[in-house]
User: Fold this.
Amino acid sequence: MRTVFYGWWLVAAYLVIAIISWSLGTFGMGVYIHALALRRDFTIALVSNAVTLSYLVSAAALLFVGAATVHFGPRPVIALGGGIIGLVVACIPWCVQSWELLLLMVFMGVGRSCLSTTSISTGLAPWFERHQGRAISTALLGASIGGILGTPLLLGGIAVFGFKAALLLAGISSLILLIPIAIFVLKDKPQDMGLHPDGITPSSPIGPVTVKWSRGGALKTHRFQTQLLAFGLGMMVQIGFLSHHVSMVAPMLGEEGASLAVSGAAMSAFVGRLLLARYSDNLDVRLATGVVLTVAAVSLACMATFTGAAGLLISSVAYGLTVGNLTTLSPIVVRKEFGAASFGAVFGVASSLIAFAMALGPAFFGAIRSAYGSYSPALYLAGGLNLVAAATVVWGRRHPLPLPT
Assistant:
């Protein structure tokens, strides 16, 4: 009887890790902003800036996460991230001073970086060659599931148990799930178990040997520069939107309706990721990225224009289709264009620089909302930035890669 290649069990483990990471570290941010603004008299601008600080710290930490995952293995990195995020979430309701919130968001940034796309894709990189795109796409389905489950569970838990008890329960649950997975399930590389990438025996063809790029060499290419700009703009808009999604729609839809909007967006993101996991190894990923960014731009413009309940729900679901794909396409673009041998080094730099751009998103939406008293101007401007990103990533296809340096 043929056994399942252990790499696919790791994909399942990383999927669970992604569920918890995106539930509490990404989609949960909208709940924290909304709850703290209501219950602690913190302004939305203050909490938005704290969230931005969290993403800046995460971006800086990503410079080291990829290398640490390669050097020490994924287990200590994932265990550290799970422990930090669990403790931070449990402590958020106890914040009464702005400095306390800022300190917790610093730690949240470190924890999120340890449970990020970078750590997940780097952990899976030694296990797959032929199916690297499918493996990453499947593991990151957990991000969409986190959006489907995270916000409703957090908002529902707050309604039933109260703010403090609900987040304490969420933090403890993440510790109970993540620490055992990190210790007992995750493995460094297939050779440690007498296996080979993709479960292919040494006598079977593994595909062409790829040359290796240096970080500096990759940074000089138009391919790297255009994907960096495109994903930097797209992810800045995405994180800003996700951080404010609840606050955007709650005035019209109420907390239950806001939960429905966020869950609908996450469910459509899950569908988008399923399609990407199926076809990612055969797509022109730059053209696919351009389409995703264009759909995002139209969805944001519609949300700003059609502010009734139906318009907000439909626009949320439409934008959700782009959320999962945009997050997953970034490592796939790097993998296809720079090869498996260079993935860790090149994507480590790319993810860190993109994360710095992402960090501006919450403050971007918060500042424009505070200045105009409405989210509509921010949504229109964000849509325009997505169109710029779409044009940039497609234009980058015209520049072939030079010889690696």
